[in-house]
Amino acid sequence: MSRCPGPSQVQHLMMTLSCLLHRKAPQVFLQKFFPRELHILSMLRHPNIIHTYEVFENMQEKVYIVMELAPHDLLDFIKKRQHLSDEVAKRIFKQMCLALNYCHDLNIAHRDLKCENVLLDKDFNVKLCDFGFSRQCDTDAVGNIKYSKTFCGSKEYAAPEVTQGIPYDPKMSDAWSMGVVLFIMVCGFMPYNGSKPKTMLRLQKDHRVNFPKTFAIPKGSKDLILKLLHPCAVRRPTIEDILRHWWVSNDLTSRKPDEGSSTSASAPKTDGQDDAETADGQDQSQK
Q1: Most exposed among 6, 17, 166, 223, judged by the fewest C-beta atoms under 10 Å?
Q2: Which of 73, 86, 112, 174 is catalytic?
């Protein structure tokens, strides 16, 4: 892992310090997830992934992680604007895809993608963070990824195969979570209500996605959301497929968002139950 810059360089860098106290952390985290996270962080060097400068431990069994500073997170960024314009959502989503594609090329799955784990720097560039549940995927003799069995992340962002406890392809579960994040960016609320897990799972397995009626969701982002939130993992696009999708590849997203700007549309309802739609475009709201 790279070392922290010397004193003469520190004034030119914006850094943050995280502290972990050994005796208060769960043993499974200390023995399994934390060492894995540190190993993976040491491998990652990408402009859209938070940079770790140094990790060190003191005599009081405290572990300190010196990281790049990113002052915003995506969830707060969305809340201040109710929902994001198509242009801003595309800019952020594409940077997320570039970061995740880099990870997947290294056979690393994040497994905890959510708005809170997408930080934004002072120029509102994406800095993907929190690799606590990430893992380097094992492959079989012919190169196929071995499935994961561990439930990871937040249930509202988790793919249906993950919440059901079915062995899953971690890269395809990442793709589902990307669909949830994109939905939240353009709609302003969660696509599924995690407090009602049975209803949530039924809607997911029926491929029902509830878009707002109070304002229109652009065709490109809606098409990609429906593809990513497919209940059958093998039918979801890979991150490479997403980057080739016409909505993402039509790169008109050079303008960075303004810190205080908001969308002009009205805020959507928070229950997310306005307009149920499936991949073929059929209205399902009466089912």
Answers
A1: 6
A2: 112
